[in-house]
Specification:
The protein has one domain: TIM Barrel, CATH 3.20.20.140. It has twelve helices and eleven strands. The strands form three sheets. A six-stranded parallel β-sheet has the order 4-5-6-7-8-9. The chain has a three-stranded parallel β-sheet with strand order 1-2-3. A two-stranded antiparallel ribbon has the order 10-11. Helix 4 packs parallel to helix 5. The radius of gyration is 27 Å and the shape is globular. The relative contact order is 0.13.
Length: 375
Amino acid sequence: MNTYRFLILLFLSAACNAQPTATKPAEMPLGFEEYDPVSTLKVPEHKLTRSKYPFIDVHNHQFQMDKSDLRPLLAQMDGLNMQVMINLSGRGWGNVDENTRFFNAAAENIKKTDPKRLILFSNINFDGIGQPGWTEEAVKILSEDVKNGAKGLKIYKSLGFSVKDNTGKRVRVDDERMDPIWAKCGELGIPVLIHTADPKSFWDPMDRYNERWLELKLHGGRKRDDKTGASWGDLLKEQHSVFRKHPKTTFINAHMGWYPNDLNKLDSLMQVFPNTLVEIGAVIAELGRQPRASKRFFEKYQDRILFGKDSWVPSEYATYFRVLETEDEYFPYHKKYHAFWRMYGIGLPDEILKKVYYKNALRIIPGIDKSQFPN
């Protein structure tokens, strides 16, 4: 038998004796939306549900303060160690008359419940801006709100983006018709918490390079472009123009001015505009992914950073406490679509924590009872 025939017979024999191979089950395709691995990393964990010190939330929204029983809300605040809540939606929604009714009813409800712990900011109703007397009336309403208990003014992101005047033209953030309002806030000694624009990624192409792709896919209404309003850069330039024109007015730049992911840029703005502070609402995930840079920033600007959360979801405060107070490593954010990355604790020292939690707010927001807080 030659070698060639031997190899053929050997192959046939092996094929006849081979066991049938089980068919591998088809795997279901897994998309990015579903991929949510459980970390195998074993490190110390400090899951906090209550802050180390009582805090003032300078960025909250409550739309039922005019008629709700507020005692359950106070109980929830107690569980978090939130001593004071600032309701930025002090005038609610609707026309000017409805706004006023809401504010007065909410102020009365708060007065009956606990005016030390629940505080309202006023808002501007932009209906009719551009008509004769609009600015004067807006200043008058603001002044009346302050007499009736408002401790500040909140400006929504609609200014500059969707607010139109009586001719249908976009109203810039630095529109001169707003100047008397900013000046009045300085005269009254109340801060302006102003939200301008959104994360820059909302204006960027929605492609595989966009960090907020999943968020934009799940919340399509958040996608922005220059055609639906102004560009991201123009909006912030207009906001900065307001800061520059009104140095005697204190401004709280909401969401760290949308520069929490570029702290060097935010550092430069803080130096240029000493009349501004920042609050950390909805940007804690940005701070938690750069703990060393964040800690340096908090150390440098410890007198100009405020605690804010933005939305009232009590369980989500735990993420803020953990980032600010601990040195935990590699833990998740509470919304994957908002931040798919892991975070790290900054581990702020007690004195800085106290400033962020309550001391800075007590300094700039008038009329808060300081006896509620430790020294």
